[in-house]
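# nightly structure sweep
# worker-07 picked up a monomer target from the shared queue
# config: single-sequence mode, recycle default, output format = structure tokens
# input follows
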Amino acid sequence: DESNKSKVLGVIAESVGSLKNAQTADSVLKLVISMPNSLPSESSQSIVLQAIAEAAGRIKNKGIASGLLNQTLSKATDLQDEYSKSVVLNLVAQSYGKLNDPQLAATVFSQAITAITLTPDESNKAFVLQAIATASTQLAEPSIAAQVLDQTLTSSTPIRDEYNKTSVLHAIANAVSQLGEPKSFVDLLNQTLSSVESILDGYRRADVMQTIANSHVQLNNFQSAATVLNQALSTAVPIKSDSRKSIVLRAIAESAGEITD
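# output follows
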């Protein structure tokens, strides 16, 4: 039975990820990686690949872990079902972010961005781009993280659905606030702000603006933060929904309270 087989393979992969012997884990997971092709359903293949991606992220040997993740990424890229592909790419991105090898992670993130950019499903695309933006915060080199976030932003530009677009822009702005390197990220925040202008929904636009302003605050760019908060406030005033307006105005006030210059 295909469903049972995928579950068993997934359980094996999850268990192997906890082994202390990286070589043994590598041998078993390579064997498991070769098996999804025997499963006719891509959703079943995806279940196995998800488990492998998570297990590889727990292996302490960076070389072995990256090799397994590369194979998983390659398998995921071949999946035609967009949802199945996006879930695996999401987990590969998360696991690569944990390897403490910024350059290698950036290369893989770029491959994942290329793979997901081709998908016509905007929700799946946004799902992966959010994961990559979040994973970039684990990169030890801010300049490399900035490159990853710039690619993520570029890939999000064609997204038309405003919910999906704002979710990616939020993730990018939040990532910047955690990376704390002003010189690398001021231009990126300005580009993110430019992307916000294409969003018609006042609530979503003001909400992302507030997040961008908060990132400026975290980077001690208080003048830029004040400018963006004023834009967010102007955008929030016409919002018709009282509940939404109050949420945004409260967030704007909190960010403004952190400006100390």
